[in-house]
Amino acid sequence: MSYNEEFWNKYSDENESRYNEEFAKFTRDLATSLRCTSVLEVGCGTGIDLRLFPDTFEIHGIDLNDYALDIAKEKFPTASFKKGDITDLPFEDSSIDFVFTHELLNYLDDDTLEKGVAEMYRVARKYIMNCEIYDKTEKQIDEHHKFRNMCKRWEGYNVRIVSDVDMHEDIEPDKNRFTLLKKL
What we know:
The chain contains 5 helices and 7 strands, in the order H-H-E-E-H-E-E-H-E-H-E-E. The chain is of the alpha/beta class. Strand 4, helix 4 (110-123) and strand 5 (124-132) form a beta-alpha-beta unit.
């Protein structure tokens, strides 16, 4: 996987302006309704999707970008933010109730994505959620990212598909695909 620090630093600067409170509420409410007590966002950036989780949760965020993690730690000091790679998550097997991504997997090459899916499955105890830009054929969007079909990517894993639908535009204006899986 190639990592462009300059691109991701600029992305981090713009991340605060992309804060979507409705998506953050949706994620928090979903994890709560599923009786989860620990959450991990893989590719958390500045932590905007985690900020509404109450301190009754064990809250974790992983990202490769030190600059984004510094912002996340400053804005949300009660959460645990670590530098980490999706292909080698620093957690024990089945240790996190709710593992999720939000527009991360679109940026990964196929090999990294395949290894990342295996890692998310390994650390998840109950549920995995992916909210990604969707197309059934996974074609290239631009030089940085491509459409993903996450339901297809989870074939062969011991999971049950709970949901695989486009997000409502009131929650996610880009209408990303919402894939929720229960680990069996």
